[in-house]
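Sharing a chain and its predicted structure for anyone who wants a worked example. Both blocks are below, sequence first, tokens second.
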Amino acid sequence: MLNFKDLHERTIPNIEAIFNSLNIATRLTGKELQFINPLRDDTDFGSASINVETGMWADFAEGGDPKAKGGDLISLVAYLTDTSQSLAAKKLQSFVSEPAHQAAVESVNTQTHMVIDGVHYDLVYPVPDGAPFLPRDFGDGLGEPSEMYPYKNEQGTLLGYILRFDLFTGKTIRPATLWMDDTGKYHWKLNGFPKPRPLYNLHLLAQKTDAPVLIVEGEKSANAASQLFPDHVVVTTMHGAKSPDKSDLTPLLGRNIFMWADYDGPGQRYEETMVKLLRSQDEKASVNIMLPITDSATYTSDTQEPMLVTGFI
């Protein structure tokens, strides 16, 4: 039987990580962690908050609804996920106990607030309805992005973008996230996503739960491979092979996984790293490796057809 008092004490230090796992935007003001309530048309901080020391919470915009307030994270998670407190407690118990969730707690990016020229900005995550569109021109010599890759959560709500800029000096890849200043105005900024970062096409993983998964290197390759393999869900980690350890790979666990990385040194290291990361979270995880029908001298991931080689690794 779960000890609710013990669970309450264990979850209090992880409040921000738990909100992050639920893809709910937050802003810390003193002891109050304000949050955007996904159950209503809520786009502004201030009406819903939880005390990070006591766990007391309330959504004052709900007009005194007794369900919209409580004294701990168990009641809050039950409210936000429309489930019983018993099931909410089990969800929180899993979060603070399982190694994969512990890794997520330790990896939460605390850079969700910044000050620029005396103006305070807070990350808005996910992007709410009614938010401004991405700017056409980012200035600072970047100009207009040549490609925009939207990242979404499991529900299909926009989290931000990875942008490609083709400059005279070559391509550059930058993340874009939405921020709110202390007057309530939204701003798109070329700042990174909170960690652990979402997978590209995460919403398709949630929709197609029985489909095999193909991991490729980069969003451009993912879009191309989706045309070649319409029966698969094609995903990639943010920033490709550079930092897969900073992505949340838990949605891949238990899936039938294939991997088709670039046919070069970084691509091979990406394959090895991904297999190790998946196995560190599930020792039974298996990955089929796919290789191009060509050699490394002429291979480009945009043009070559793949082939499947030997079974699982």
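Comments welcome. The longest helix spans residues 265-281.
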